[in-house]
Amino acid sequence: MSSRSVKKRPSTKRKHPVSGVLMVFTVILVAIVGCGIAGFAVGNSWLTNLPDYSDADLYNTSEPTVVYASDGTTELARFQLEFREAVDQSEISPYVLQGTVATEDERFYSHNGIDIAGIVRALANNLMGGELEGASTITQQFVRNTILADEMDDISLKRKVREAYIALDLEKKYSKDEILTMYLNTINYGCGAYGIQAASQRYFSKNASDLTLAEAALLIGIPQSPTFNNPVDYPDNALERRNLVLDRMLSNGYITQAEHDAAQAEPIVLNMYYDPSDGIYAYPYYTSYVKQLLYSDYGLSESDILQGGLKVVTALDTDLQDDAEAAAEYKRDLLGGDLDVAMAVIEPSTGYVRAIVGGADYSESQVNIATGQGGGGRPCGSAFKVFTLVTALKNGISPNTYIDCTSPATIDNYTVQNYDNINYGTRTITRALAVSSNTGFVRLISSLGPESVAETAREMGISSTLSPETAGATLTLGVENVTPLEMAEAFATIATGGIHIDSTPIITITDSAGNVIVDNTDPEARSERVISEEVAHAAEKVMENVITSSEGTGYSARLASGQTAAGKTGTTESYQDITFFGITPQYSVGIWCGDPSNATTVPVGTTCADVFSNFLDRVLDSSDVESFPMDNASDPTYTEYTDTKYHIYGTSGYYSSSSSSSYSSTATTDTTTTDTTTTDTGGGTADAGGGGGTADAGGGGGTADAGGGGGTADAGGGGGTASAESDSS
């Protein structure tokens, strides 16, 4: 029974033990292969969308934009996002090169971008509970700090894979020395300093090539923790880290025991250097104006300017700038109180802005009165009459044309008077400009039309908004806001013989690769003839009379060198602004004096024509004397011009009592001028005395008595304290 029952049991098939092992192995192998394939796919996806690092040297950013004076060497400013300056390896102390390798990556010259031995060592150390340490090579650190800077805070396997991949690739493209130099030019050394040169300047005020062993070791220790290792705020941490660097330099054979011990015995001695917050080192009014134009006129972005490594060579002449500032300061001392002086100096032949005095103290006020930056323009007063003069000359009106300059006068329902209500009688346009007759020039612009005068001003270089439709005849009195710089540019158009050249304070801009991207060296590219040479010549001669005539309001602008000069004074209502704009063949100068806040007025009778002579007497001597380029030009073709409505009488000075007039005047006008007209022997003009006044030649050193209506004319010479004008009403 028992045997039968055994036979009836189902048979049991025994498996071979090897087959199970094979099955397990197969499953593991499939899993490994699957994981490998999946890992490869994931890893490959991580390497997509990598930044372009085909030229990793470009990551030696952010390079500052450096601004220079016209000599190309005097540094005016550095505009930068970070304090950084890239240097070649030859400009770095060997101590820095050796200490960095010894501290950060001692097998730097033997690995291929990834240090496997370092990874194993760090892993073992960390697992054994030692002080945490990384295993990133110098190449990997460079990648992390530059190419993958946007991922720096991403602590993930993906970022490490991307970092390692790029590091391996860079090692194929660049030599070890090139990679080390790029690293040293980009690493953060704390206190806002990026790169070894910036760090050397920041902490020791010296170049990276001049660092001592102890100084180099101190800087090498900072990047491990730029905040907590910087010697300014954490000197104990910095000292400990410095000594660790020295230990590693010793153990790697870069320094001797004696050198090691001597360096460790040195205390930390810093010589800190900080950039000004705006990056401007010198002549801040001029330099800030240049910076503004980089944005507004040249279309450069903030990144271009703060990181692009541009080289900007300006037109600033530092000697001229110093002389302009000295002349302005001298006038400030004379004026006293809160009164200030601003200047702009343009070279007419090139349009280069050679000097700018924006105010007394940039640290107190960043409003640049000379350029209008930060505050807009100011009224220029009667200096604007020059544009009325030029418009008249363009229209064939001779400067010997007589015009009624009696005062006061009501013209087209506008009542105007001369300075101190002086009655200048009937006199030529030349002599009317010399004494700055308001009534005469209001009549002249009314006859010409304010829009035509505004158009002349724009053509000659005035870029501020002019509103002749609202200003009307007062436009000639300089009631619109303009800047000394644009007035100097417009007056320079006369000095060039009628060619307007766009002014610029910038000569060239060069990019970080050495390509010239802005070239203003050719003034013809910025030039346009806007008035004829003959008109410019005639205008300059009339403007000379403002300075040379004994009755001229610009008498104090005469130059000791004998250099011919021409110009025009200006004064606004209540003496809130006084101006002078003058030209020589070499320079066009715009000057403003007043209180920027309008709280204080300039003393009555004050002139700033003396600032012009003070400045140019420092600059020019007799050997520098030149002639204007249009000196040999003929006179324009003139036509006899009369306008009975506005009492413009032609060159004969004849006035008919039957002539109609649409304006009334409280001043009397002599109806016959033949008995009172005399020839001006000095300036070639004639003058007529109205209302019983005597007529006087007034030129060539003669006395200047306009004598109209019983009034007397104030010459305003002999120091220019009696300015015969009152410009705005």
Which secondary-structure class do the elements indicate?
alpha+beta
State which percent range the strand residues make up. Answer: 5-15%
Number of helices: 22
**What gap, in angstroms, lies between the N and C termini?**
145 Å
- The helicity comes to 25-40%
Largest sheet: 6 strands, antiparallel
Please tell me the overall pLDDT.
Answer: 84
Strand order of the largest sheet: 21-22-9-12-24-23
The radius of gyration is: 40 Å
- Gross geometry: elongated
Strands, count: 24
Question: What do these coordinates show?
Answer:
Mean pLDDT is 84; it is low at 1-15 and 656-729. A hairpin with a 4-residue loop joins strand 21 (642-643) and strand 22 (648-650). Helix content is 36%, strand content 13%. By secondary structure, the protein is α+β, with helices and mostly antiparallel strands.
Chain-wise SSE layout:
Elements: H1 2-8, H2 17-46, E1 65-68, E2 75-79, E3 83-84, H3 94-104, H4 116-127, H5 138-147, H6 157-173, H7 176-186, E4 193-194, H8 196-204, H9 213-220, H10 235-251, H11 257-265, H12 284-296, H13 302-307, E5 311-314, H14 318-335, E6 340-347, E7 352-357, E8 378-379, H15 385-394, E9 402-404, E10 409-411, E11 414-416, E12 426-428, H16 429-435, H17 438-448, H18 450-460, H19 468-471, E13 481-482, H20 484-495, E14 499-501, E15 506-510, E16 516-519, E17 527-529, H21 533-548, E18 566-571, E19 577-583, E20 588-594, H22 609-619, E21 642-643, E22 648-650, E23 678-679, E24 686-688
Parallel strand pairs: 1-5, 3-4
Antiparallel strand pairs: 1-2, 5-15, 6-7, 6-20, 8-13, 9-12, 9-22, 10-11, 12-24, 14-17, 15-16, 18-19, 19-20, 21-22, 23-24
